Amino acid sequence: MGPGRLQALIDGVFAIALTLLVLDLPRPEGSTHLGHDLLHQWPAYLAYLVSFVTIGIIWIEHHGMMSAVRSINRRFLERTLVFLLLVSVIPWPTAIAADYADRGFSQARVAAILYAATMLLMGLSFAWGWRYLTTHPELVAEPARVAFPAGTRRAVVGGLVYLAAIAVAAVSPAASFSIDALVAGYFALSRSEVPGLIYQSAQSGDADGDGS
Amino acid sequence: MGPGRLQALIDGVFAIALTLLVLDLPRPEGSTHLGHDLLHQWPAYLAYLVSFVTIGIIWIEHHGMMSAVRSINRRFLERTLVFLLLVSVIPWPTAIAADYADRGFSQARVAAILYAATMLLMGLSFAWGWRYLTTHPELVAEPARVAFPAGTRRAVVGGLVYLAAIAVAAVSPAASFSIDALVAGYFALSRSEVPGLIYQSAQSGDADGDGS
Amino acid sequence: MGPGRLQALIDGVFAIALTLLVLDLPRPEGSTHLGHDLLHQWPAYLAYLVSFVTIGIIWIEHHGMMSAVRSINRRFLERTLVFLLLVSVIPWPTAIAADYADRGFSQARVAAILYAATMLLMGLSFAWGWRYLTTHPELVAEPARVAFPAGTRRAVVGGLVYLAAIAVAAVSPAASFSIDALVAGYFALSRSEVPGLIYQSAQSGDADGDGS
Amino acid sequence: MGPGRLQALIDGVFAIALTLLVLDLPRPEGSTHLGHDLLHQWPAYLAYLVSFVTIGIIWIEHHGMMSAVRSINRRFLERTLVFLLLVSVIPWPTAIAADYADRGFSQARVAAILYAATMLLMGLSFAWGWRYLTTHPELVAEPARVAFPAGTRRAVVGGLVYLAAIAVAAVSPAASFSIDALVAGYFALSRSEVPGLIYQSAQSGDADGDGS
Q: Which of A42, A110, C11, C182 could form a disulfide with B34 if both were Cys (CB 3.0 to 4.6 A apart)?
């Protein structure tokens, strides 16, 4: 199978996951101190921001990976569906984190673990896709194949950081959420050009792989 | 008509149906035992998972079918809309199944019947599309036509299994939901390459039919 | 401008409008007679069905129109946005119709008028787009231009039927909703090939106009 | 990287942001004076209309800008994600504006500031993208480069008007909302052909840049 329509499904799921996050931004009802009540919701804004940036970065990285994919099979489709399941579920732990981050230690701890565990699974499922392509180079544009082990490592490391966030949550939920935010910030500001390199080498080797 | 924009609509509806499921994952409000309350919601997670996998698999299978379609007419468009209606409605029985699966036998039975009946109708509407293409081979790439009777059978059988789920619900809602999960698991792990075969034969016969 | 990305936006809005309808299907909470309570919600299912079919048919007809468009300008973009506004708002009168259709004459009358008025405006904005293309034939593929007056008439007539639905609502909301359903059914079963003819003549005259 | 899939993500986010607005149109529950209650919600309709038109216009303008983009890099992707974040968040201040515009001066003032501040940030992030392309002409089709300073100015000015809306909100929330509406109306009716000019010059210089 060609990757064109799979990319359309992926882009659709990402666009919707990014946009559904806003539905969980709390809308105070019947407030008589609206300014105060809005400011009081700052954990929700932070959670929204971190999840949006994380999903956006993951889209960029996944975009880079997919740009080198030349054909797909059923097994790769299924791994991609697992990945999309974990991307599309992100608004749920985000809403719970936004709601419980400032409701006392024991609730915040659960929310922090749930959030980091979702991100861990999402990162691992992304790495699972990288690995499948690394071990099935026939699906990948020839000049880009050499970059796939580095891409796999980057995804594994990016995912495993959330193990630290889970461990830290037992001691300090705030520190755990800070790790989540730092991961998003690190990848956002990262000068790594792994995705770009893959894209360029894929382009140099054959026709437009951008699915457009 | 060419199939390009129909595929865009189909991919959009699938992406949204997959992603809207998350809106019905329950967010406990004002919980003071968040970990316990989240674990208590396990039927919702199972329902989410089964529906996500089912919609994802159906997308893969439908993708295979559409890859061989070379032109469409108004009658096929209408059958596709019926199919999309039944795909897009899935979050509704999923939410009801999640909510009532553990609320006593008589409510769980109704929820199990509603869920399986939706899936039955969805499967039959999918088979209806297969059958239309089998009986209108002029819409299909020549080398793929031979595979369409097998595709139709696969869709009919996949749909009719839900009749068993409906019948079993009268005795055991849990067993009925298990059948739903088994169907999703079977198709997810199935090594059947009917969609892939259709895709490949379609590709071998003429230009890119991937709508991209 | 070329029509490609406008079609992507249009398809996205239609796919989402079709799929958001399901969010307003009522989910009974804490029901102890789930079967009875679900059956009791039949007006919601009917409203869902009629709105889904109407949006789907409009997508088919609009697809036909757009298949002949070869370039677009800012004025046509703006008319299309007005049309998309009225398409995307449909879930709102649908939810109100579903809720109030069986809550007594005076509420049902308001709901029926609101529903038909939305459809009237949507239909007129569609006709407005047809008319703009009829009077700006330079935007349309040459062989398809001759069919645009017929397309405009079809859209105007399809829209104006809702005037009757508004008038009838004053006497019988049920009759008014029946007209809405009949319009959807008529267009769904209509053998008119105006959209198809436009598509075919557009194809015969020049390259692929399907935006894919 | 090529711009094709980025445009797919952008179009998806815009389509969803446009369509999610409808979820916040209030649905009166258990009303016994439905007509009166619906009319009473007029601030929600106005807020819906202004936000829809604003998002639609921004899509048209952004479409014009992107039509001249020939390649993208990670830095431009990140700026685009910031822009998409601010577009996708618009339903939230819209819902708060709809809810609080007629709930007394002090709440309306907060709602007006929140709405205008969101639009200000959205406009500035749009200008930030224009500016990046102005200073990185290698990403832009050669004949369109000359128009980018004008595009940047247009976006900056369009954004900074919301500073006036914020200032005016301290005195009159109604006047502040009127400025928001006037901006939308001005750009909707504007005869400026900056986006069109960019598109045309981009087309004249090389192959189809419409991402289709």
A: A110
Distance set, CA A33 to CA C14, D6, D47 (Å): 39, 41, 21
Q: Number of folded domains in chain B? A: 1
**Alpha-carbon dihedral of residues A173, A174, A175, A179, nearest 10 degrees?**
100
- Interchain CB distance below 8 Å, A27 and D92: yes
Considering only CB atoms, D18 lies closest to which of C84, C91, C111, namely C84
CB contact under 8 A, D1 and A196: yes
Residue bearing tokens 């036998």? B105
Q: How far is C198 from chain D (nearest CA, A)?
A: 21
Residue D140 pairs with which residues in a beta bridge?
D69
Q: Is the Cβ pair A4, B60 closer than 8 Å?
A: no
Q: Quick check: is C29 in a domain?
A: no
- Option in A18, A32, A210 nearest D88 (CB): A18
User: pLDDT by residue (tens digit) across A142-171?
Assistant: 888 888 888 899 889 988 999 999 999 999
Q: Looking at the domain assignment, is residue D59 inside a domain?
A: yes
Question: Given an 8 Å threshold on Cβ–Cβ distance, is C84 in contact with D56?
Answer: yes
Complex ipTM value: 0.88
Touching subunits of A (3+ CB pairs, under 8 Å) are B, D
Which of C9, C18, C139 to probe by mutation at the D interface, max D CB count within 10 Å?
C9
Q: Tell if the pTM clears 0.95, that is, is over it.
A: no
- Which of C16, C95, C100 lies at the smallest CB-CB distance from D19? C16
In order of A4, A116, C16, C20, C141, the CA distances from C52 in angstroms are 28, 39, 11, 10, 30
C121-141 residue pLDDT tens? 999 999 999 999 999 999 998
Chain A residue numbers touching D89 (CB-CB < 8 A): 22, 25, 48
D17 to chain A: closest CA residue: A19
Whether D67 contacts chain C with CB within 8 A: yes
Q: At what angle do helices A173-189 and A42-66 cross, to 10 degrees?
A: 40
Task: Identify the DSSP state of B41.
Answer: T
Residues of chain B with pLDDT under 70: 1-2, 191-212
Distance CA D212, CA D193 (A): 22
Length of chain A: 212
Q: Is residue B13 part of a domain?
A: yes
Q: Is residue A62 assigned to a domain? A: yes
Domain holding B118, by residue range, is 4-24+36-211
Buried b (16+ CB within 10 A) or exposed e, B162-177: beebbebbeeebeebb
Whether residue C22 contacts residue C45, with contact meaning beta carbons closer than 8 Å, is answered with: no
| Residues whose CB is less than 8 angstroms from the CB of residue D70 and which lie 6 or more positions away in sequence, other chains included | D3, D139, D140, D141, D206, D209
